[in-house]
Prior knowledge:
Blueprint: H1 2-41, E1 51-52, E2 54-59, E3 62-67, E4 70-71, E5 76-77, E6 83-90, E7 99-103, E8 106-107, E9 109-114, E10 117-121, E11 137-141, E12 149-160, E13 166-167, E14 170-174, H2 175-213, H3 219-235, H4 247-270, H5 284-295, H6 300-331, H7 334-357, H8 369-457, H9 462-480, H10 489-504, E15 510-515, H11 529-550, E16 554-563, E17 568-576, H12 590-604, E18 608-614, E19 617-623
Parallel strand pairs: 15-16
Antiparallel strand pairs: 1-14, 2-3, 2-6, 4-13, 5-12, 6-12, 7-11, 7-14, 8-13, 9-10, 9-12, 16-17, 17-19, 18-19
Amino acid sequence: xxxxxxxxxxRPRRRLIVSRLVxxxxxxxxxxxxxxxxxxxxxxxxxxxxxLSGFSLxxxxxxxxxxxxxxxxxxxxLTDPPLYTGTFTFRSRDAASGWSVYLPRFSNAxxxxxxxxxxxxxxxxxxxxxxxxxxxxxxxxxxxLLRDGSNEITVRLFVWGPLKGFLDTVYVGPxxxxxxxxxxxxxxxxxxxxxxxxxxxxxxxxxAIMWLMRRREPVYxxxxxxxxxxVVQAFSPPPVPPATVSRLAAVLLASxxxxxxxxxxxxxxxxxxxxxxxxxLLFVPGLVVFVVGLIAGPPLPRVLFVLIGIPTVGLCLFLxxxxxxxAVVRRQDAAxxxxxxxxxxxxxxxxxxxxxxxxxxxxxxxxxxxxxYSAMLVAIGAGLTWxxxxxxxxxxxxxxxxxxxxxxxxxxxxxxxxREQERARAAALANERxxxxxxxxxxxxxxxxxxxxxxxxxxxxxxxxxAARAALKDLRLVIDSMDDIGGDLMLxxxxxxxxxxxxxxxxxxxxDWRVATPQGLPLHPELRPWHVVQIVRILDEAVTNAVKHAQxxxxxxxxxxxxxxxxxxxxxSIADDGKGFALVGEGTSxxxxxxxxxxxxxxxxxxxxxxSSDSSGTFVRLQLPQVFPDSDAATG
Length: 636
């Protein structure tokens, strides 16, 4: 009974796996068929009217007739390359249009001569000798080489293995008829692979940045390294024999199996599985090819690449197909489905290339695996985009839960901010009202009281007029203090200078205005109107004392900016040449009250006030603070 109970849950699970796997495999079979048909339909059509297929071949000292396309019997023929000799007919009436010779496919390099003169040598272009590029070649035939009637054409095929040499049908005819076919093949087999490789390099940089920002997800770094190897293989021109052993050749030969192994690592990590320890064996063939390529000379590295490198690529593609199939059965998501379809396309193209390489398909030598690899990159990019979009959806759902809470907190903060703003505005208005009342009380209020007292005592004329003018002057001072001077105290001192000069002129007292430093006083962005009022009243008090009590003839005002190593600060000095006065204590005389007011005003501004007086005159020095206080509640 227990065995029956254990088998019961296993049957639905097996049935579920079969129900998911069978449709997936059928779809992959359809993709294989579509890929094969696509390879057949996408073959570019060459102009058969100008085809030359009948040639005589001299190889290994033997001459025999052959029909192109043709595979050579030798895999290595650099010293004595196979020589194909054929003929074509040229009519003098066709001389108006230039003629060309066009080679759609060949390996590894070809030298073409017309009537004994070389018109094309592909060894001059390293990229033209890459079998994986299927690079076509075309060359104009100089008109002076063409003879009316029969002309000879020879093709030397240089083969450096390990595959047999291959020469496709040769085309000779008007350039206008052959050039479009050449451009079509160049677009399909040269331009597109280079464009895909450029896109691959950009994607590699993006993935590398993603891995650097998210080190805990090595899948991005693995894929970036695989793509870099592919870019190196695509953009690095291989050395053309008889070049000596090259480290670059070892890198190019080893990059394909190592790149394929990295793709398997990416698939395992991307689908959430742990990479097994024995999985590192996948990298052994590529490393062997690389080490042998560094040590041994040709052709051993290329032979090893054919024997173990290419099978490793096929094995890795098969493993990747198995990994994606398991992921589709388990996950049933778009990422595994798209990657699985792309791997099937690449695997089909690899099988096609193997059939062409081993001459099972005798009429073709086109390799499309590198081009189809771009399809897998597109699928992987789509898979990563889907994964990123899913993460964004999760973040959005989490953020949606926080939106309501954030809005509630925002509303509470707004209400609190409005209340605090209202309190701050009310406090500012109250402080400003208090300052204006104090200024009016200390200045204008006292002057008005004096006017009233003089009027009640019966004084007339100049006494009341002077008191009224003093009240008006104080009112103007309060109004002027409301102007925005942008923290530049020199603007306020300029206005004060004009008023002081008008005050001293009736008493024949000269005002000597000195600005000792070019900048005058430092700028103070924190300067407020009440600061200006206190400083100007200190200066007014000093000038008024000199006029009323000192009997001075000259008053010097000096303005300077000093620096004692702790930062610049402003200094305003007022000196007269009067008779001076004796400094008193905290008495009740008018002079003592005036000094106390000056010291109090300076302390409220955070300034240092100094006064000295003797028989040679009186000196007042006001040292401004580096930063004025925010409140006028400062006391000295």
